[in-house]
């Protein structure tokens, strides 16, 4: 007998987890008040610039490496075999100086990604670096594709706002998956006060001549520095917690910048679509709903000054100014299960999958598969073995 699962949240984590579960013979319903096509500052996934970028700081065999590696394989296969998914292969070049050189000496992903270029072939002036084929995602199309695949597999949706996690505890529900992102801070029954927003502001422009992704990390005291999209980092943020700062800058990048309080994350959503994201800011615990004009002007001014080819000799064609809240968490990703009870006393397994910060897409399939395994283990421990797929 199929187990009934309610997934709370329809961002990339929620939809991917729902699809993974539905394809594994669970009966899944996604409960959310926003779905692909809706726009809201706290519906983070549609505002992202998404690609896969290897983080050389992960230890081989670590959970992070496992999750990100699993996701790369899945996304690369989609790029190769399912054009409708909007995932595409692109080249990424990343050069660093001594500050981060160790991350490229023997990265855990060197045997995972194709076309890795060794240090001897890197340009003069770079102390270390790596070039490889990776994937980029046209986010709005990809989210809609995920939802379509989920529904086609027999999944269901319910549009509503839940004030408390128990609102998902239906009479016949066996499992609830919490993929609420930033809302995990306020959702009744969860109220995780270690969750906080990291506000990001970007500009979406039309630049079909941009075909690849590049980055140069400079010798600044704290973290990364990029070209073609600039973010202002408040001095207080720089002096306090650098972990979320460093994570937040791992989006799709192009070229270099060297200002101490700026970093660049030009996010190419999909080269074939002609859209390029310039950005973006990273402000912890800031909830502003509207784009900041001064920040936007600074992004454009610096991008066009440092990378004139971006305009192709014409006035920059702006499609939209975007603001979103990255779902950050002090302790990082929460991926675990716990047991609760519904009103009738029935045990409900709650699986948490949130706190991805800027790694939502990059970790999506791997984290969802880990959630699936955790759910199966929890059901088995209750004596409720999951129906075999065979």
From TrEMBL:
Domain FAD dependent oxidoreductase, first and last residues per copy: 5-368
InterPro entries named in the record: DAO, FAD-dep_OxRdtase
Recorded family membership: Belongs to the DAMOX/DASOX family.
PANTHER family hit by this protein: D-AMINO ACID OXIDASE (PTHR11530), D-ASPARTATE OXIDASE (PTHR11530:SF11)
Pfam families cross-referenced by the UniProt entry: DAO
One GO CC term on file: cytoplasm
Coiled coil spans: none
Name of the protein: 1922_t:CDS:1
Cofactor(s), by name: FAD
Entry's Gene Ontology BP terms: D-amino acid catabolic process
Alphabetized UniProt keyword annotations: FAD, Flavoprotein, Oxidoreductase
Binding of D-dopa, residues: 326
Alphabetical list of SUPFAM superfamilies matching this protein: FAD-linked reductases, C-terminal domain, Nucleotide-binding domain
MF annotations from Gene Ontology: D-amino-acid oxidase activity; FAD binding
Binding residue positions for FAD: 180
